[in-house]
Amino acid sequence: MPPLSEHARTTARTAGRAAALIAALAWCLVVVGALVRAHGAGLACPDWPLCFGQVIPEFDLKVAFEWGHRAMAGGLSLALVGLAVFALRSSELRARFGASFAWIFGLLAVQIVLGGLTVLLGLAPWTVTAHLLVGNGFVVALVWLARGLLESVRATPAVHAPASNALASVGALCAVLLLLQFALGGLVSSHYAGLACSTFPLCNGDSLAPTLSGQVGLHVIHRLNAYALCAAFGALAFLARGSARLGPMSAVAFGLVLVQVCVGVANVLLRLPIEVTALHSAVATALAITTALFVRELLAARRAAPAALPARDARVARHRPAGRCPAEGAR
């Protein structure tokens, strides 16, 4: 794409910083949602969108958590509308980022509907799980937008070293396993299976996987997928270790996976303390953000691979003796 005009670059820089701030607020909203769940306050306001039929109800601790979660979501939505109006006034930014904003508002609309259904259907497991998945997807989409806006400010595009097929395959595997882990985490929470295995590393002192059915089965599958995540992200960090841009991201992601496993173990051994439960959600979202940024960089590196081939061919040509073609050299 051609570089932006000076006015569009200034707008993109401000909009990118604002998008990053809104993404941070959305991250906090995910953590507050975990606190709502941990305090058993998911139905503290039994109706929706009002709370006990009021805009501002009488508060106790549980109502304050649930109502505060809704108020935060409303404020974040208004901030996002303001960001869209500010950024999309520029025709250049509208052409580049209009689709991204459409996706983000689509996710926001789905998340609002899921939030209402979660209350109206009495915390049905599928609504709780979907709410978790879409909420984290919303955060990731905001981070992706912020990164794109800030990168568009550069006068010249960043240089990306090509990525190998093995690295791309392992990166895709990590993303799929992480998405599965989020879904499993939502199911464990919504089925109240957090302590279905009350010991570690064995489940209830029996075995690693005494069963794959019921609450115990959900918890066991969640653990087994966590082990697979550790192995996949460890392989990713190893394969990307020589890349100046992908290496640090993969190392951070692997570190977050290890921290998340430790927090998960603490959650079980300490009997689901509220603070550890919130930390578990916070680290999970941080891992989702880091993985998304890695995938974004990986896609850019893969796109850079064809462009690297002519340069390599040019280097070969410079070292080839004059007046000889490859066929002549073979003879």
**Helix fraction by DSSP (H/I, runs of at least 4):** over 70%
Which consecutive residue ranges, at least 5 long each, have pLDDT under 50? 308-331
Radius of gyration (CA) equals 24 Å
Order of helices and strands: HHHHHHHHH
* Tally of alpha and pi helices: 9
- Rounded mean pLDDT score: 90
The total strand number stands at: 0
Structural class: mainly alpha
Oligomer: single chain
Query: What is the top-level CATH class of the largest domain?
Result: Mainly Alpha
Strand content: under 5%
Describe the protein in words.
This protein has 331 residues and is mostly helical. The protein has two domains: 1-157, Four Helix Bundle (Hemerythrin (Met), subunit A) (Up-down Bundle), CATH 1.20.120; 158-307. Helix content is 74%, strand content 0%. The chain contains nine helices and no strands. Helix 1 (6-38) packs antiparallel against helix 8 (274-318) and helix 5 (165-190) runs antiparallel to helix 6. The longest helix is centred in the C-terminal third of the chain and has 45 residues, at 274-318. The radius of gyration is 24 Å and the shape is flat. The two termini are 45 Å apart.
